[in-house]
Structure formats: structure tokens, C-alpha cells
Amino acid sequence: MRKLAAFCIATIWACAAQAEIAVEVGYLRIEQPTPATLSDLYLPPEDDGVAGAQLGLADNQTTGQFLGHVYTLTTVDVPADGDALGAAREMLAASGLLIVDAAAPILTQIADLPEAADAVIFNVSASEMALRDAECRANLLHTLPSYAMRTDALMQFLVQKRWTDLALIAGTHPGDLAYADALRASAAKFQLRLRGEKTWEYDADMRRNAAQEVPLFTQDLPSHDVLLVADELGDFARYVMYNTWEPRPLAGSEGVSPVTWSPAVEQWGAAQLQNRFADLAGRGMAPKDYAAWAAIRSIGEAVTRTGAADPQALRSYMLSDAFELAGFKGRPMSFRTWNGQLRQPIPIVHPRAVVATAPLEGFLHQRSELDTLGLDMAESACTAFSGGTP
Length: 390
What we know:
Layout: H1 2-19, E1 21-30, H2 50-67, E2 69-78, H3 84-94, E3 97-101, H4 104-111, E4 120-123, E5 140-142, H5 147-161, E6 165-170, H6 174-189, E7 193-199, H7 206-218, E8 226-230, H8 237-240, E9 250-252, E10 257-258, H9 270-281, H10 287-306, H11 311-318, E11 325-326, E12 332-333, E13 346-350, E14 353-358
Parallel strand pairs: 1-2, 1-3, 3-4, 4-5, 6-7, 6-8, 8-9
Antiparallel strand pairs: 10-13, 11-12, 13-14
């Protein structure tokens, strides 16, 4: 009996030794200069995104310690005028698993590097539609929702409320323009009427002039149920709220907003995630934090299920029907096989509460209701994932 017990123990230790896997993940941040805004009251935290990755790493290590899986995270920051591609090459030489926080053009350049051919790169900061469309890359997965996913979620909410007539104010920053384009496309998709729109080009100090300037600016907008605002820079929209000529709800970048994540999300175990993040970072979890957390957790889930650390093996599993990520949003999340986008519910929030979570009841889809948000398979011009199946 003792010999049998000793043999069993030895076998267990041998299996554990064989199962030991080292998983190295790189986190590359390329500084993105932003123009000055009317107020610096809400600047992003210095560890935006990185803190979310660190929490995901801790979650992976909790499971990994029982399986002999060891996770490490290396973070590199590159200034806006620095050698982003050189830094990416160095990180890819150390690991084929790379999380990138960079503007869309730099992101595609990194994905196109010869060193990245067999890597898996996670986009946690670029919402541009083109990255999920004609400019997609087979080695590039997206844990941050696209603009279209967010604006489709908002339009579902407006349809449910029967707020069918819309007006739009858009800023001039590239992010504002991209978000405004997505709002227009989503309004047309869900058959809502965009009655009129204006471009915000004020350079006055709205902290002093909002009560005088904004009513006049919005006075000539056609009759509408909701005023949409595209202000992804976080510049002017806060001064539009409660200052419009007609008393109307504000939605989009301010007011009722479709977001990746918010500290107001509490259901489905999210409060536990929020508390653990607050203990780690000393602040609330932001959208980029959530996208980075989801990237690290996707890696951890794939390593746990496959017992492998090879990037291509992990990619294959993440794009398979077997992959599911519990993301504290009420539904299992998975990657779209036609463009690498992580399917996920979109909370619709104001600063203190969740108003709704899309997809909303009644919006059906032949595969997944989550595919009512963003580019569907037939709509995407992405061909890099053509070998995948829905």
C-alpha cells in the first residue's frame, strides 16, 4: 500500500512537472498626444489599461498556481516621437503574446512586422471600424469594442424608448468624427431619423460662456427627441448638458453613454471585479482597463484549456466554438471568427448607474444576439480571417 501511495505521489509530481508552462505577455504603450481641452478635470490615470492587465495577471495566477502555469507581464512605454516599431520588435522577440495600446495606424504597422507573423496581438485602445473591416489583420484581436458596437447598443436603447427623432452635435477631433460616423450608420441601421446636425467649433471658455453660447448654438436644430453628442476627446459635451435650447436628453459621449465598462456596472458578479480592481489600483475601472483585463484573461483561459503557451495554438482555441470568457457582463464572451472582435454586451450608463445593457430584448440574430452589435459577418470586408467559421 505504501509503495502504491508513493507511486501515486510520484506520478502526480511528474505530471505537475510536465504541465509547467511559462506564459510571457508583453504590454506596449505608445503615447498618443491629445489636443488641449476646455478643462483638465478628468484626465486619464497614468496606469490606464496597465492596471487592468495587472488584475488579469493576478486572476490568471490564481488558477495557474494549481496547474503549474506561470504568468509574467512586461510593460514598455514609448513616447509619441519614440521608436514604436523598434520597441515592438524587441518585445516580440521575447514573447509572441502582445497587448498594444496605440493609435490604429501604428497598430497595423506592428501587426505587419515580420516578427509578428506568428504572434497574437491584442488591441485595447483603438475603436476604429477599419481595423475590424478592410484593414483587419489575422494576428490582431480586439478586446475593445468598436465604435459601431457602442453606437448600435445606444440605438437599440433609443428604439426601445421610442425616441425616434435625433439631432447630432459632433466635434472636430478624429475620434469625434469617427464616433459621429458610427452614430449616423447605427441610426440608419435601426431606422431612426437624424433630423439635423451641427459641428462644434467653439474655442471660447465654455466654463464661463456655456449658459449663453450653447442655447443659441442649439436653437436652430430641428425638432428631436434626443440630442446625440460625439465628443470622444471629452472636451465640450459636459457644457452642452442642461444648456440646450430645447430640454432634451443627451446621449452618446455624454449623458446616456454606451461604454465598454463603467464603475457603475455591478450585476453578474461585477461588483467583486470592481472591488478587486479598486484594491489594486485605488480607483475605478475604466474601459481600457477592462479591455486589457479581458485580453489577459483570454490568454489565461486559452492556456488553461489547451495546456499550451504557443501563440498560434492559443489563437486557434480563442477563435473556436469552445472558447468562452466570463466577463461579468451577463453573457459568455467569444471572438468573432471573421474579424477577431471580442463579442461582448455593452452597458448603457450615466455616471451613477446602468440604464440598460445591450443587446436588448427583441433584437434577434441567427447566431448570437451579441452579433446585433457592430459589424456582422456579411457586413465586414475583412478577409484575413476567411478560414474561420461563424
